[in-house]
Amino acid sequence: ESDTASEISFQLNKHKKTPSIGSHSSDMASVSSVSGSVLSVYSGDFGSVDAQGTVEFALDYDEKNREFQVHVSQCKDLAVVDEKKGRSDPYVKTYLLPDKARMGKRKTSVKKRTVNPIYNEVLRYKIEKMVLLIQKLNLSVWHNDPLGRNSFLGEIEIDLASWDWSNRKLNWYPLKPRSLSAVNGVDHRGVMSLSIKYVPPGSLGPKNPPSGEVHIWVKDVKDLLQLRPSGVDSFVKCYVLPDTSKKSYQKTRVIKRDTNPVFNHTIVYDGFHTEDLKDACVELTVWDHEKLTNHFLGGIRLGLGTGLSYGISVDWMDSTQEEVAFWQEMMLAANEWIEGLLPLRSL
Fold first, then answer.
1. Does pTM surpass 0.70?
2. Which residues, including other chains, have CB under 8 Å from residue 304's CB and lie 6 or more apart?
3. Gene3D superfamilies this protein is in (predicted)?
4. Cβ-contact 61, 68 below 8 angstroms
5. How far is CA 280 from CA 92, 118, 125, 309, in A?
6. pLDDT tens across 274-307, in order?
7. CATH of range 47-182; options 1.20.1250.20, 2.60.120.10, 2.60.40.150, 3.40.50.720
């Protein structure tokens, strides 16, 4: 059940406009040689720290410059990520939701070896006030790791429509666990934590990689539906649509009796051209495993959500606004891991 990393190829027949995935599932050693030491990057649990501590910040809107300003002052009593060394290297990140891709993220500098970092930095957004008032501010704190194994330390989410804009003072706010506010509706199925990255051909050196690669790192899922008193035996399936053949299919190992399973499973798809990203869709679905049949628990689809794939109308190109924003951010940030926390839904 050593199922940490796998790789398949995504190759397109340009004449027929349909994908043909000639593929193989590789062991960790071969993936490591192809895509930059996958084994060292993806093994281990990189997000299991409990949120704690507080953050001090202030919000302001500069009417003259039409600029939203987040004054990030400091944090106190953050969780320790590296227990052996007793250290965390924290930074603060902000998003305006739900339109993450258009507004982009803002980040402070990283403060090393401290759980009480002082920033005194201003994160700025050029945005009209009337547009700002229909957004939410998501401010989160992360531990920075040089290999990209960043750990979530806590967050706070603010509805800007109800914010008191006369309050420009710095105030302290408790950091909370990952928010489920986006999925507290009737169809609540859980939340998937993942990262994705696109590596363009030749971006790491001459002919390295020889073709574009999409890396999908399924970290964990929180708050799955509990179908039995003992919990749920879950696993994740992955396809790159429109190909639904067995060669496209990849899956994680089964995590037993846990409604909050940690997978830390990575899949590398090569054979991607940059133009293919607008027509392909990564479908990730979570299933409960039983001997006779598997039960669908929820899923996400990462793509542009245009309803079209290679000029053909398809019903699976139906990504939500959040999923589209996540995919667009990956397309705009080559060779950079994009972190996401997406609600599972019916497909």
1. no
2. 278, 317, 319, 324, 327, 328
3. C2 domain
4. yes
5. 32, 43, 31, 7
6. 888 999 999 999 998 887 778 888 899 999 999 9
7. 2.60.40.150
